[in-house]
Amino acid sequence: MLTKRIIPCLDIKDGRTVKGVQFENIRDAGDPVELAKWYARQGADELVFLDITATNEGRKTFAELVRDIARHIDIPFTVGGGISSVADVEVLLQNGADKVSVNSSAIKNPQLVAELARYFGSQCVTVAIDTKYKEATGWKVYTRAGTIETEHQTVDWAKQVVDLGAGEILLTSMNNDGTKAGFALDITSEVAHAVTVPVIASGGAGSMAHFADAFLKANADAALAASLFHFRELAIPDLKQYLKQQGVAVRI
Amino acid sequence: MNLVIVDYKAGNVQSVQFALERLGVQATLSADAETIKAADKVIFPGVGQAASAMTQLKARNLDKLLPTLEQPFFGVCLGMQLLCQHSEEGNTDLLNIIPLPVKHFETDLKVPHMGWNQLENLQTPLFEGLQEQEYVYYVHSYYVPVSAYTIAQTSYPEPFSAALQYKNFYAAQFHPEKSGAAGSQILKNFLAL
């Protein structure tokens, strides 16, 4: 049976992991390759690397890092951050990334999604959507690291990018992100039912039960978390055992 | 061993090369007919779209060459589908080495079929040392039905061909280069053929 995926997300700046990751048994927790290998051994199903570097110099470092990651890990990984053209994606895929994730650049130019799908196939195009709920507007799509509200309703935008050729949606609820109060089950469920492609739930994971809810109640295909894993508040082997007991199909 | 990865600009060639490196094997990337013909073994990766991949193969005359090869040959993902007869993807005629159709998933489940799924009914040396129900990584929207050439199957929700064998042509729909220890074992088994 196809299993639900558990995905740790690593933020990268100038080729190094950020957020002061705490790990034992790792020589250099700032080294994304060491961390990636560790997560692969722990049973992570995929990894996401988000480049938060602002400079062009740093971007070059990121492409080299992608190559280094591909050389050393044997599970799939997605890379995102600052991707705005076919040429950007070509460099990352050639260096061994399996998928790329686009966010603000898809809002700015939705045709980019269609172009990427045409050049590289939908299977490697993930569209990341940052969503935020307000009483007055409902769940709206935000851009530029969540600073600017767009005119898009979240479900409509998800359907639109899938029609354009997105092969996967990475849905982050800004209301939930960092709260550890659980994923946004309502909007995750709405999007998961509205589109035909897999949906990754993101933002708000704080306990094992939250993951079970994302899969069993919101019908997410994968769930992503960062600090929860990085700070070892939750170990992936324990999480997967728990999910299995709850009746979620996982790879153990 | 002289191992060649067919490089026709439609594959995640790099990932396959790195996976082989992790096994201590250096592979040559090439689209050159003589180099490919002289190889002890050939790996044929592929991601992307069937019609554009066929265009790339034809541009390099590889559509004529590949069906004539006699050494152990391993098609991966789209590289497996291209060995078949015809794909619903872009209504494309393929290399026609294995007389099978490639169809689009028609299901209520999510498409692409993306993530880790299980292998069943394992046959032949390619799966030596692997257990039934082993997990491997998939990402694809088209599939080859189960046939006489199927040497492993996976269900989504109906069984489809996870791997094929016809004469010297082996093929896998999943990505052994991204399938952890199980994937490495499968690559090792191919190298040992």
TrEMBL record, chain A:
The record's top EC class is lyase
Q: Where in the cell is it found?
A: Cytoplasm
Q: Give the enzyme's EC designation.
A: 4.3.2.10
Q: Where is the active site?
A: 11, 130
Tell me where it mainly resides: cytoplasm
Q: Which GO terms describe its biological process?
A: L-histidine biosynthetic process
Superkingdom of origin: Bacteria
Q: Name one GO molecular function term.
A: lyase activity
What the record says about family reads: Belongs to the HisA/HisF family.
Record-given protein name: Imidazole glycerol phosphate synthase subunit HisF
What species is this protein from?
Pontibacter flavimaris
TrEMBL record, chain B:
- Glutamine amidotransferase domain location: 4-191
Q: Secretion signal: which residues?
A: none
Which keywords label this protein?
Amino-acid biosynthesis, Cytoplasm, Glutamine amidotransferase, Histidine biosynthesis, Hydrolase, Lyase, Transferase
* GO molecular function per UniProt: glutaminase activity; imidazoleglycerol-phosphate synthase activity; lyase activity
* Primary location: cytoplasm
Pathway(s) served: Amino-acid biosynthesis; L-histidine biosynthesis; L-histidine from 5-phospho-alpha-D-ribose 1-diphosphate: step 5/9
Tell me where in or outside the cell this protein is found. Answer: Cytoplasm
UniProt-recorded name of the protein: Imidazole glycerol phosphate synthase subunit HisH
Q: Write down the species.
A: Pontibacter flavimaris
